[in-house]
Design goal:
Strand content of chain A: 15-25%
Shape of chain A: globular
Number of strands of chain B: 0
Number of strands of chain A: 21
Number of helices of chain B: 13
Oligomer: heterodimer
Strand content of chain B: under 5%
Helix content of chain B: over 70%
Distance between the termini of chain A: 39 Å
Structural class of chain B: mainly alpha
Chain lengths: 604, 317
């Protein structure tokens, strides 16, 4: 089954030349069942250059990277093709596929090194960090003496910007921060002066500022050691920042390859163009996810990674017309959306004061022991408004949103909904108050019960609020599914059959069934690919317009700010350091931290 | 840091033992019957019963007797056996040794065997050997110890082969280890009961660890497979398995009762059954406390292993 597609090449740097250190040609990888995962991939890595390999989850980029090292994950096996390496100081190429186990092992870690995605999982938690670096040197017989190896450990630690002293080497991985752990991983990879480096999304789990430090380290080390790098990521901004060339993967095929500037500025392949359109930019010059509020129907086809093509004609039975523009998007969900706005208005009138803000958080503070997690937070949210709560991990942004939603009742201060102070815990809030604020969680993979159909999961909030009959609940659920552009056909499907983007839409629909006035979105796009993220952002924009929904959008991704938020609140160490309309915060940041965040964003 | 954690656990263990002693003592108070009458028989005169009660201190209030008994435990005085009239410690001395031998040999065989087989299965998961072993361990795990014991007796001592003694041959007073062949069947029974659980748990945790990122990373560093398994994978799997091993070893302390009875083995189990038959309250109390102590010590050891294999617990706790 050969479904190899022609790769769009921007130049001929892949033709054999003396700079090439590793060359992959017509690489095919199969599952144990015999299905082809990679359909003949060709690329070459040159000394001192980094090739970025981009693609969505499931596109086979990690498989390709690991195949360069002769490693195949459980359930996968080598199909055909070749991986050749030209190690330093050797005239002839080594064919990885032809080597026996021992020879491959000698290659790994010494000539070709790997930097993994999640340093927290990839460092052995029961081994001191110095020992883990030392292990590489011992196995590959670095130098000629114990002393030389000991010195090399200290040296490479200093190279990656960590202290190389004994006491630091004696630390355990859990005593280091994420960025430090990743730098240990980098040190481990560079310890043997490798020729080739495979970097598998090494900054994905890190904050923007940590990411920029780690990228700097990687760039310096690659240049200083004259290494050829393969940088696997789904983040085009990072690619632009770090790599010299880029290759785009789509479902096991390499669709486009060339120098970064050529590919990103003048994408030839339809998929690359779509990817580029989906990347959020800090300047907000383009509109991401426009016309993409509906996900392209994957159901009838193969259910694999689906791409969003923004010109996709809406045609499914459950879809409600083109929702790209606000005006004509109303027809499908118009009636109910109108209802919810009206009823919100009624409730408003009945509540404490007519001109109180929809949601107001005042002097929210929370401390666990000596650790002050939140410190005097004030936030205001009006109907139809979206406030982005921006912060790094550990800034307290999730804690704050949980306090607002009543999932965390340890806080002091007050949360008011339409002027009425809410009880701390959801249990003590009235039904109406609970319905008013709905929460969408970060990972759509764990927030939906895999044993329940989407319909069942979405009915739960209605049952909890005790409204309506079984028939009216079903109608409400179907209407919610329509409004997130999934369609009624998803009612009986289970989360396992859905893609990440579809699951997150279902999770949003679950928050919508009770027609809330405030929706708290806790990092809802960070587990998703960039094109799916764009479509979710597009959906949220539409929902705000349709339903006058107020949103608290929690994220660490500042690049999204202009695409979704009216107001921006920057949270640092439990305090809001900058707060105001998005544009003014971005243009005139008052706090040091905000300025640092803005400058750390990989520029596009 | 580490010492502090262990100290805390030790203190907690002591507290548990104290609580157990209260329960054991309370439970024996509730037992029906009169110890003095049980000793002297139905024909005893009221005067003699009163005199014996006086002699055994049974007229004192319960709390005083408890304190007296508890104080005795600390100096190794388990009281006087009402059945034999001698001190309990003398009565149990040999028995403890005999049972200890049985348990220790069973533990020394089954723990490494279980861990080894579990690792082996995890490395060959999904293969035919793995499936066969999983089947066998499931069958063994679902059989009670007396069934296994009787099966072994039928196989090796009576019906099929007559190569091993079916019961303990040593006359009272002779140490059991003078005739090692009589230890084989009881030990084998215990091993077959205990090992399957360890194997199954080890296999499960090992599979999880083998799938983890740091094992893949170790392979990609070029670490030889043997070292990947022994240095990177196994230590992580040991933590959870230590808990299961502890439960199994603690079970041994109670499980020997049935096995010893089956093989007429002169250990604690036999002593416990005799003591219950003769209403020998002091002996029952002493054995209950010993079994409880084994439980506590073994679980403490498991916690220590868990802490040792996880530096996070070591430095954070």
């Amino acid at each position: 089954m050969s479904t190899k597609t022609q790769t769009v090449r921007h130049d001929d740097a892949n033709e054999p030349n003396e700079k090439i250190v590793l060359r992959v040609s017509d690489l095919r990888v199969l599952t144990n069942a015999g299905d082809e995962i990679l359909h003949g991939v060709d690329f070459a890595l040159s000394r001192g250059e980094i090739l970025g390999l981009v693609g969505e989850s499931g596109s086979g980029k990690t498989t390709a990277g690991l195949a360069c090292m002769g490693h195949f994950r459980e359930g996968l096996k080598f199909g055909s093709g070749s991986v050749s390496i030209w190690p330093r100081g050797e005239a002839t190429a080594v064919e990885v596929g032809d080597l026996d186990e021992v020879a491959v092992r000698e290659l790994r870690g010494s000539r070709i090194a790997y930097i993994p995605q999640d340093p927290a999982l990839s460092l052995n938690p029961a081994m001191r960090v110095g020992e883990q670096i030392r292990e590489v040197l011992d196995i590959h017989g670095f130098g000629s003496s114990e002393k030389e190896r000991t010195d090399r450990v200290a040296e490479v630690l200093v190279d990656v910007g960590l202290p190389g002293d004994r006491s630091y080497q004696k630390r355990w991985p859990h005593q280091l921060s994420g960025g430090q752990q990743q730098r240990i991983g980098i040190a481990m990879a560079f310890a043997m002066f490798p020729d080739v480096l495979i970097l598998d999304e090494p900054t994905t789990g890190l904050d923007v500022s940590t990411q920029s430090v780690v990228l700097d380290t990687i760039r310096q080390m690659t240049v200083a050691n004259n290494v050829a790098g393969l940088y696997i990521t789904h983040d085009l901004a990072v690619i632009k920042d770090i790599s010299d060339r880029v290759a785009v993967m789509l479902r096991g095929n390499l669709v486009e390859e060339g120098p970064v500037s050529a590919v990103l500025e003048d994408p030839q392949h339809e998929y690359t163009q779509m990817l580029m359109a989906a990347v959020p930019d800090l300047a907000g010059r383009k509109t991401i996810g426009d016309g993409a509020a509906e996900e392209k129907k994957p159901s009838e086809t193969d259910g694999e990674t689906h791409i969003l093509v923004s010109t996709g004609e809406p045609g499914g039975p459950g879809e409600s017309g083109d929702s790209g523009t606000d005006g004509d998007a109303r027809d499908g969900a118009a009636a109910s959306a109108g209802d919810s706005v009206a009823s919100a208005g009624e409730r408003d009138g009945g509540a404490a004061s007519a001109n109180a803000p929809l949601l107001e958080a005042k002097d929210i503070a929370l401390a666990y022991g000596k650790a002050q997690i939140l410190d005097g937070i004030n936030l205001v949210l009006e109907p139809g408004e979206c406030t982005m709560l921006l912060g790094e991990s550990g800034s307290g942004k999730t804690t704050l949103s949980q306090c607002v939603a009543g999932l965390n009742d340890d806080y002091s201060g007050s949360v008011r909904l339409r002027g009425t102070e809410l009880a701390r815990s959801t249990r003590k809030r009235t039904n109406e108050q609970r319905v008013g604020i709905q929460y969408v969680f970060q990972s759509p993979f764990s927030s939906l019960n895999p044993r329940r159909s989407i319909g069942q999961s979405l009915t739960v909030p209605l049952e909890m609020s005790g409204e309506g009959t079984a028939a009216s609940r079903k109608a409400a659920v179907e209407e919610a599914l329509d409004s997130v552009r999934l369609g009624r056909s998803f009612y009986h499907r289970r989360p396992g059959d859905l893609s990440g983007g579809e699951r997150q839409r279902a999770a949003i629909a679950r928050a919508l069934v009770n027609a809330p006035s405030v929706m708290v979105c806790d990092e809802i796009t960070s587990a998703l690919d960039v094109s799916v993220q764009a479509s979710i952002v597009g959906l949220l924009r539409t929902l705000r317009a349709e339903r006058q929904l107020a949103m608290l959008f929690v994220t660490h991704n500042i690049a999204l700010s202009r695409h979704i938020a009216d107001n921006l609140a920057v949270l640092n160490k439990g305090k809001i350091v900058d707060y105001g309309p998005t544009a003014s915060v971005l243009e005139n940041p008052t706090h040091e931290y905000t300025r640092a965040l803005i400058s750390d964003v990989p520029k596009f | 840091m580490f010492g502090k954690v262990i100290g805390k656990r030790l203190l907690f263990s002591a507290f548990i033992l104290l609580a157990v002693s209260l329960l054991v003592f309370g439970a024996t108070l509730l037992l029906p019957g009169d110890a003095a009458r049980a000793i002297l028989g139905q024909q005893a005169t009221p005067e003699r019963i009163a005199a014996l009660n006086e002699q055994l201190g049974l007229n004192d209030p319960a709390w005083l007797r408890y304190l007296h008994w508890l104080g005795g435990l600390f100096v190794g005085d388990f009281g006087t056996s009402s059945a034999s009239g001698g001190p309990v410690s003398a009565l149990l001395g040999d028995r403890i040794g005999a049972s200890f031998i049985l348990m220790a040999v069973a533990a020394v065989i089954s723990v490494p065997l279980g861990i080894g087989l579990g690792v082996y299965q995890a490395l060959h998961r999904g293969g035919r050997r793995d499936q066969t072993m999983t089947g066998i361990s499931l069958v063994l795990a679902s059989m009670p110890e007396f069934v296994i014991g009787i099966g072994l007796v039928a196989l090796f001592a009576t019906s099929v082969f007559q190569i091993l003694p079916a019961v303990t041959l040593a006359p009272p007073g002779e140490p059991v280890w003078n005739r090692p062949e009589q230890l084989i069947l009881p030990t084998l029974t215990l091993v077959l009961v205990v090992t399957p659980y360890i194997v199954r748990m080890m296999r499960a945790t090992m599979i999880e660890v083998l799938d983890s990122g740091f094992v893949e990373m170790a392979r990609l560093k070029g670490v030889p497979e043997k070292r990947v398994i022994l240095r990177h994978a196994v230590p992580h799997a040991l933590g959870p398995v230590a808990q299961v091993v502890a439960i199994q070893l603690a079970w041994l302390a109670g499980g020997v009762v049935v096995v010893e009875f089956l093989f007429r083995y002169p250990g604690l189990g036999q002593a416990l059954i005799d003591a219950v038959t003769y209403r020998d309250v002091q002996v029952v109390q002493a054995i209950s406390m010993l079994v409880a102590a084994v439980y506590v010590v073994v679980n403490l050891a498991a916690d220590v292993v868990g802490i040792l294999t996880n530096p996070k617990l070591r430095s954070a706790a």
